[in-house]
Amino acid sequence: MSDSREWGVGGGEWENGSPAEPTMPVRESVVGGREPERANPGDVTATLASSSDPAYDEERASSGSSVTAAPAASEEDTEPADIDQENLAPAPTPHPPPPTPDATTPDPRPPAPEIDPVYVDRSDHSISRRHIPENVLKVLYRLHRSGYRAYLCGGSVRDLLMSGTPKDFDIATDAHPAEIRRLFRNSRIIGRRFRLVHIIFQDMLVEVATFRREPDRADDAAELLITDDNTFGSPLQDARRRDFTINALFYNIADFSVIDYVGGLEDVEAKRVRVIGDPDVRFREDPVRMMRAVEFASRLGFSIEPATWDAILRHKNEILKASAPRVSEEILDLLRRGWSRGAVQLMVDTGLLDPLLPEVYKSIAGDRAPYFWKMLEVLDRTVQAGRRISDPVLLSVMFLPWILQELETEETRRTTKMKTSDVVVFIRELIQPMCTRMSLAAGTRHQIETALDTLWRLLEPPVDRKAQIRFVFREPFNDALALLELYALSSGKYVEVFRQWREFAQRARRVADSEATPLPSAKRRRRRR
Question: Which of 170, 174, 255, 286 is the catalytic position?
Answer without folding.
Answer: 170
